[in-house]
Amino acid sequence: MAARPLYRISFLQQGELWELYARDIFQSELWGFIEVEGVVFGDDSKVVVDPGAEKLRRTFEGVSRSYLPMNAIVRIDEVEREGTPRAVKAEGNVTAFPGAMHWPPREE
Fold first, then answer.
1. Is 18 exposed, middle or buried (0-12, 13-18, 19+ CB in 10 A)?
2. What is the pLDDT of residues 9-56, one digit of tens each?
3. Cα separation of 36 and 7, whole Å?
4. Where are the alpha helices (DSSP H) in the chain?
5. How far is residue 2's CA from residue 70's CA, in Å, rounded to a whole number?
6. Which residues pair with 21 in a beta bridge?
7. pTM
8. How far apart are CA 22 and CA 38, in angstroms?
9. For labelling, which of 10, 33, 38, 53 has a CA lying 20 to 30 Å from the CA of 102?
10. 104 by DSSP, 3-state: which?
11. Beta bridge partners of 78
């Protein structure tokens, strides 16, 4: 039996690039959102504390399902093992795609 897939989701959040690991992701019924369930934070027994990982742990503590806007997602990868979740300042040429969506005016 194959192991459950693990996904690394990178997305922009208020000028930072957040990277999470989750067990389940899928298209939401809410238009324009991706649902993320089963966020994984790894081993708590480490002596060294990463402030970015702790920020994400506090943010997603008690959250069973999160809805991420598609235009904030930078990348989704299926990975073999989890890494350290992180929140770092977004620098360089990283930008969300697509930009703002503009709908044509409706004719009534």
1. buried
2. 988 888 888 888 889 999 988 888 999 988 887 665 555 566 767 777
3. 10
4. 51-59
5. 29
6. 8, 40
7. 0.71
8. 5
9. 10
10. coil
11. 7
